[in-house]
Specification:
The structure is a single chain. The chain is an all-alpha fold.
């Protein structure tokens, strides 16, 4: 009976029974935690080290924040290399309406839409582009030289079947003279008619948004608005909410400025991405904030 049960002394014996076991226990109790803490510190420190991808992303974010809202471009009219060609002017300005054929603009490359216009000749088309016609403001709201606009006219017309010769530097002055003559054909015969012609052209040279009382509250419009957005938003064409029109903007304000900026960047309805411009997100946000401010 006594052999079947452990003795009283055996019940109090621990797992460590030899000096070797004691040494191993001490080792694991002190050394292993130190190693674990060291590895943890190294892991955390490695996570905080910037990698090449994050550095590039941070540099891009900083560059975007430092990008100026507006820029000043100085052109030397005597230097052909400083002037844009027809395709560049089209991409920067004309594509906003002509790429999709909105607001009555003949669609780029649509021979049937351009046919009746090509018959008018290059000089007449140039006058329309410089002075504005229908829903299109002067230069489509852009700020280019007469030569650059002439190149854009030739570029679009030739893509629709015309065979106009691109204007040269030496022909720029002649084009300007022809434009002025075409704008006031009755001037020599009747001085009163000249006065009427000038009066008729003057309103077209004044951007429509400048006359909007609501727009005046927000101060001067960003350059991008005058160059690109005013073409549609100034008169509210092609479904674009008119500047200062609270009723037209009301259902859009719920999206917030960021939501509206996303619509502009991606394009929506008849509006192409970025309104057909090459503006940065910061420039677009400034314009959206400006237009939203006119209806608050």
């Amino acid at each position: 009976m006594s052999d079947a049960h452990p003795s009283h002394d055996d019940a109090h014996h621990g797992p460590i029974k030899t000096p070797k076991q004691l040494i191993m226990a001490v080792f694991f109790a002190f050394v292993v935690p130190i190693i674990a803490i060291t590895l943890l510190v190294m892991y955390v420190g490695a996570e905080k080290q910037p990698n090449a991808g994050s550095e590039a992303a941070n540099a891009e974010v900083v560059a975007r924040r430092l990008h100026p809202i507006g820029t000043v471009e100085v052109k030397d009219a005597s230097d052909p290399s400083s002037l844009k060609n027809g395709e560049q002017v089209f991409a920067a300005q004309c594509s906003a309406c002509h790429a999709a054929g909105v607001a009555g603009a003949p669609k780029f490359g649509d021979t049937s839409a351009w046919a009746p216009r090509l018959g008018q000749g290059y000089e007449t088309l140039l006058v329309h582009a410089l002075k504005g016609k229908g829903n299109m403001g002067p230069q489509g709201g852009g700020d280019f030289t007469d030569l650059e606009i002439g190149r854009a006219v030739v570029y679009m017309a030739n893509k629709a079947g015309a065979k106009f010769e691109e204007p040269k530097m030496t022909a720029a002055a002649a084009s300007g003279a022809a434009t002025n003559a075409a704008a006031a054909p009755a001037a020599p015969a009747a001085p009163a008619a000249a006065t009427t012609t000038v009066a008729a052209v003057a309103p077209a040279a004044t951007p429509a948004p400048a006359a909007t009382p609501a727009a005046a509250k927000t101060g001067a419009a960003p350059p991008l608005y005058e160059q690109t957005c005013a073409v549609c938003h100034g008169a509210g064409v092609a479904g674009a909410p008119k500047l200062g029109d609270k009723a037209a903007w009301a259902p859009r304000l719920g999206q917030g400025v960021d939501g509206l900026v996303a619509n502009v960047v991606k394009g929506k309805g008849a509006m192409p991405p970025k309104g057909g411009s090459s503006a940065s997100p910061d420039e677009i946000k400034a314009v959206v904030a400006y237009m939203v401010g006119t209806v608050k």
